[in-house]
Structure formats: structure tokens, C-alpha cells
Design a protein that fits this description.
Length: about 300
């Protein structure tokens, strides 16, 4: 049986999401937002990644997605990152968001494998939207890759921003070539407290060409949680983070070149935990060094 996600059903699932006790108390501090360099538009700095979590278009997945998305908008966030290649994730998002009339609440970023009109048409149909906010070319590996077709689509109003992505470090030279030449609005790369390659080679260029930065794999696919299992957050870390998720995400957000982090989860309590990184103090330069030293001793 397929559920139709009306606004009422979405709200009912919101109740489910809100019944999950917050892992940590939220503060009343203002929301951390970041400016998208090419437009000046502000984006809340924590979003949601959807690789692996919403792969199957069934009712169980749609219920989970509705609860996670409700948690996201309840805390003032907007950004969802998905891809044409993430199983049924685009369809699940479309099934949950469109019938509930909530499209305008979200900043939807998706990815295509190729600048292919049929693939874009399929993504828009699955997401049930006439346009996405950000259209990214997934896993760029050719330094001569043109973004002309993406720029045309942006001019035609099929997307508001364009971007490129890669988490394959062997392809970072290609990312740098395309980023420097084509100057997309966004670049998405992997960045986490224990994987900081991009601090030296992609983030400086992104800053120079005024590209927004989305950080994939902010927990290293959960590797960081496994590294601190059974450990307490040190007292100096508690000054700015009351959970490990917030500790890890705030390291990334304390770099002003980062526009938003996109941790993946299908758990509304984890979503709420992650969104807490959008409030309160961020670590300063000395605290960042201490965080790196701490993670390197584990
Ligand atoms: N080339 C590319 O463009 C590219 C490549 C890879 C990824 N990405 C994007 O980056 C996103 C993030 O990557 P990812 O999802 O693979 O890895 P990730 O965000 O680094 O880690 C996800 C893992 O962390 C767990 N988690 C999330 N929040 C938690 C919390 N508060 N407490 C404890 N555990 C928590 C999740 O489990 P639960 O589900 O149990 O919460 C999951 O096991 C992807 O979803 C995708 O959108 C892009």
C-alpha cells in the first residue's frame, strides 16, 4: 500500500519526530546561516545528506523521511542533498514533500552523473518539482569537463545554482581545474575532523572563485563516532558542543569557507542532534587545533 503524504499526515509524523526526546538541550542562540557567495542568499548551515538512507521507495522509508524532514524544518533548516544515483531517494523525497505542499520549505540539491537532459527530466519528475535549487555534476573526473549545459539549464530556470562534486581524492586535480575555469556556484567535497585534505587544496580555490562549499561525509560515514565510542567530550570541548555530533560538525562550521554541512541520517533524533550544531559558539582557532590534536591521539 502506498501512503499519500498529505500535509496532515506529514504533521502527524512530525508529532512522532517531536516525541523523540532531544538528545541534548537546544539553546536560544541565533541560527548559524551562511551566505551563498554568488547570490548573497543565506542558507542555514546544517542540512541533510540522503545517500543510502532513503534508497527504497516503500512506506517505511517514506515515514522515516517524513519524520527526518519535519525535524529539519522544525529547527529552521532547509538544505537536502540527494542524487539521481541514490537509489529511490529522489522519489521518496518527492513523495513526502510535494503532496504535503512543502516544496518551498526546502533547498533541494541533487546531482546528475552526466549533463544529460533525460537524466535531469527524470530527477525533476521523481522529486515532483519543476526546478531544483542546486544542480550538481556528480563525481567530476575530467579536468576538461564543461558546465555549459548546466549553465544553460540555470539560464532556463531549471535550477537556481550549479555545482560540482567529488569525494575521490585522485580526482581533486580535475575538481580544481573545473572549479577554477567554470566557476560554479558550489563545490561539494568530503571534509571531516579526521580527513582535512581539502583545507589545503580545494577550500582556498573555492574561496578565490567565490564558490559555496558543501561538505559531504562530515562524520566520515560514521567513522568519527566509532573513534570516540565510550569516550566523554573533553571539558574544553563542552564549551561549544554538548554532543559528539555537534563537536564534529562545529569543527567544519568554524571554517568560514564552509557554507553548509550535510550529515546523512534516517533517524529524526540524530537529525535534531545534528541541527543543534547550528546554534551557540563555534570553536576558535586555538580550539580547532586542540580538536585536531585530540582526534589524532585516538
Ligand atoms: N561525491 C559526492 O558528491 C558525495 C559522496 C558521498 C556523500 N555525499 C553526500 O554527503 C552526505 C553525507 O555522507 P554520508 O551520509 O555517507 O556519511 P556521514 O554523514 O559522514 O555519516 C553518516 C553516518 O553517521 C550516522 N549519524 C548521523 N548523525 C548522527 C548522530 N547525530 N549521532 C550518531 N550517528 C549519526 C548515520 O547513522 P544514522 O542513519 O543511524 O543516523 C550514518 O551512519 C551523503 O548523504 C550525501 O548526500 C556526496
Amino acid at each position: 500500500m502506498t501512503i499519500r503524504m498529505t500535509r496532515r499526515k506529514f504533521a502527524a509524523l512530525a508529532g512522532v519526530a517531536l516525541l523523540v526526546p532531544p538528545v541534548h538541550a537546544q539553546t536560544d542562540a541565533p541560527l548559524i546561516t551562511r551566505v551563498i557567495p554568488s547570490s548573497g542568499e543565506r542558507l542555514p548551515a546544517v542540512g541533510l545528506g540522503t545517500a543510502h538512507v532513503f534508497d527504497r521507495a516503500d512506506d517505511t522509508t517514506r515515514h522515516k523521511a517524513a519524520a527526518v524532514l519535519q525535524a529539519l524544518i522544525a529547527k529552521g533548516a532547509r538544505l537536502i542533498d540527494t542524487a539521481s544515483s541514490y537509489g529511490d531517494a529522489e522519489s521518496v523525497l518527492g513523495d513526502v514533500i510535494a503532496p504535503a505542499g512543502l516544496r518551498d520549505k526546502f533547498f533541494i540539491a541533487t546531482k546528475l552523473e552526466q549533463p544529460d537532459a533525460a537524466e535531469l527530466k527524470r530527477s525533476l519528475a521523481r522529486l515532483k518539482t519543476p526546478k531544483v535549487d542546486l544542480l550538481q555534476l556528480h563525481n567530476v573526473r575530467n579536468p576538461r569537463q564543461s558546465l555549459a549545459q548546466f549553465k544553460d539549464w540555470k539560464a532556463q530556470g531549471m535550477c537556481r545554482y550549479i555545482g560540482i562534486t567529488s569525494t575521490f581524492h585522485g580526482d581533486f586535480a580535475a575538481i580544481e581545474s573545473v572549479l577554477g575555469r567554470e566557476k560554479p556556484d558550489f563545490v561539494q567535497i568530503d571534509y571531516s575532523l579526521d580527513e582535512r585534505t581539502v583545507e589545503k587544496r580545494i577550500l582556498p580555490l573555492a574561496s578565490e572563485v567565490k564558490a559555496g562549499v558543501l561538505t559531504a561525509l562530515p562524520f566520515g560515514r560514521g567513522r568519527l563516532f566509532r573513534a570516540v565510542r565510550g569516550k566523554e567530550i573533553p571539558d574544553w570541548g563542552r564549551v561549544f558542543a554538548d554532543s559528539w555530533a555537534r563537536f564534529f560538525l562545529k569543527y567544519l562550521l568554524s571554517d568560514p569557507r564552509i557554507t553548509a554541512v550535510i550529515p546523512g541520517t534516517s533517524d529524526p533524533a540524530h537529525m535534531t542532534d545534528n541541527l543543534g550544531a547550528m546554534r551557540g559558539p563555534l570553536p576558535d582557532a586555538d580550539q580547532r587545533l586542540r580538536m585536531v590534536a585530540f582526534i589524532e591521539t585516538l
